[in-house]
Write a structure and sequence with these properties.
Strand order of the largest sheet: 8-7-16-17-18-15-19
Shape: globular
Helix content: 25-40%
Radius of gyration: 22 Å
Strand content: 15-25%
């Protein structure tokens, strides 16, 4: 008799688990509270223009590279079109009135920055060598068998990203440039582990792409495959309780009162939300308290820009700007100096794009800035909230205009989101961008396992393993591996 797996939440982690398990003969039922599935893969359309909300670009998508192999295994390649970012400048770091390009590939990356820092070539080569070795040393990133499941060398977990970058070079400006894309992981000086910096940078440096037409195509493709294998994906189906007996989880209860029974449950929601669904003695109070008290990464304020037709040339790079001399500490701001930094990216709506149709502009924002409106509903937060958003948007657009003169005159309209928006649509604690914060000074305490004290209840998503499309897919492999064996899945990927 086939085993029934219930998955709570339809983010990338839940959908990937659903695909892997349905592919391997499990009966899968996936429940999503929102009308639109996908979590951070969600998009929205206003006045005929589609906007990304969370998944803005991906890496390692060349033939044979890690994400390409995962996409092939997940049957995503026929449905997901990619457009390569500028290989000479996939990321641009704007700092101190100067701009520095990250070029794709180890050699090009070194050559590009060595042209600006001619005395630092050997140090740049060493830097690239270390981040490559961190990625290669991880069995799941390099698709090697592992007994038991080992993710990383402990030394990469205990060392901070900032101390590593500082050890590479004594040049103060180059130190900042090498850490210049830290909004991709909300890095904090002295806290964020080396492995996060290394895996993110290796991932994008191998190759960088935008998804043509929006990241929701990934969600729709996975759902199509799950349903084709006999699985169910149900939207507007909010799980309000994970039901347990004296030994294990037995099913879930939906908001409408429906009870669904299953053999295994995988939670793809924030661990805090998972705990809120549980009322069982199987989970220790000390564990609940630890999870509920863990620090989460900062959230963000986002401006979604709709440009006037054929007015703004398409920027095939991601633009990271800093107002000060340091890329670190931008999450610590005052009302007067916000924003200290921003990230600006154009959306890709077609291949060989000449003009931008839409863009996303975001800056760090702490939940405390919007906490007074917590508990209110979308569209009903009041005029003071709307005034707050307009003021923040105008200030952020002013900062963009300083770096990209003429942009404001070509904006047709714009929309905004705050940490409250992110909380409402993804359920992540305090609207955090990347979930639970990993701290190299407390490496054990800030790790959340895919396993729980309920023997048949597992977790997946950006809080397990790591965030980002690659980290979440690997986390889903780990969670699915509890039912299938991780090495079994690795073999399937290698044979695909």
């Amino acid at each position: 008799m086939e085993k029934h797996v219930l998955i709570v939440g339809s983010g990338l982690g839940g959908l990937t688990c659903g695909y892997i398990l349905s592919k391997n003969g499990f009966r899968v039922s996936l429940f999503e509270k929102n009308v639109q599935p996908g979590g951070c893969l969600q998009t929205f359309v206003r006045h005929g223009v589609k906007f990304e909300t969370g998944m803005h670009y991906v890496g390692s998508m060349e033939e044979g590279q890690t994400l390409h192999r995962f996409f092939k295994y997940l049957s995503l390649l026929p449905d997901v079109e990619m457009s390569s970012l500028d290989k000479s400048a996939y990321d641009i770091i704007s700092l101190g009135g100067r701009r520095f390009a990250y070029a794709s590939g180890a050699e090009r990356f070194v050559d590009s920055l060595a042209s600006r820092f001619p005395n630092e070539r050997r140090n740049l080569e060493r830097y690239v060598g270390v981040i490559r070795s961190v990625a290669n040393d991880s069995p799941l990133y390099s698709l090697r068998h592992t007994h038991p499941v080992t993710l990383l060398n402990p030394e990469y977990i205990k060392q901070s990203a900032s101390s590593f970058v500082d050890s590479v070079t004594s040049d103060p400006l180059l130190r900042q440039v090498l850490a210049g894309n830290l909004p991709l992981y909300a890095g904090i000086r002295g806290k964020t582990p080396l492995y996060i910096h290394a895996l993110v940078n290796d991932f994008y440096n191998k190759s960088s792409y935008r998804i043509v037409g929006g990241s929701d195509v990934i969600a729709h493709s996975l759902i199509k495959s799950i349903r084709a294998a006999g699985g169910a994906v149900r939207t507007l189906s909010k799980v309000v309780k994970i039901d347990c007996d004296e030994k294990k989880a037995v099913g879930v209860t939906l908001e409408n009162g429906e009870e669904v029974r299953g053999d295994y449950i995988i939670s793809n929601i924030h661990p805090c939300r998972t705990i809120e669904l549980l009322d069982t003695r199987l989970i220790r109070k000390s564990y609940c308290e630890r999870i509920m008290n863990l620090r989460n990464t900062v959230s963000n304020f986002t401006v979604y820009i709709h440009f006037k037709k054929d007015t703004v040339p398409y920027l095939n790079s991601n633009f990271f700007h800093y107002n000060g001399a340091s890329v670190w500490g931008c999450e610590d701001y005052t009302e007067a100096d916000w924003p200290k930094s921003f990230l600006y990216m154009h959306h890709c709506s077609e291949h060989s794009q000449r003009y931008a149709v839409a863009a996303v502009l975001f800056a760090y924002m702490n939940f405390e800035d919007v906490a007074r409106w917590n508990g209110t509903r979308i569209g009903r937060r009041g005029e003071d909230y709307e005034v707050f958003k307009r003021q923040k948007a105008e200030r952020l657009l002013d900062e963009l205009e300083k770096q990209m003169p003429g942009t404001r005159a070509n904006i047709e309209r714009y929309y905004t989101s705050t940490p409250l928006t992110y909380l409402d649509y993804t359920g992540t604690e305090k609207g955090s961008m990347y979930g639970i914060f990993r701290d190299c000074t407390e490496p054990v305490q800030t790790v959340v396992s895919q396993r729980t004290k309920v023997s048949n209840l597992f977790q997946t998503g950006q809080n397990i393993n790591s965030h980002g499309i690659l980290g979440v897919i690997i986390g889903a492999i780990i969670a699915s591996g509890e039912l299938l064996g991780v090495n079994t899945i690795i073999e399937q990927i290698k044979r695909t």
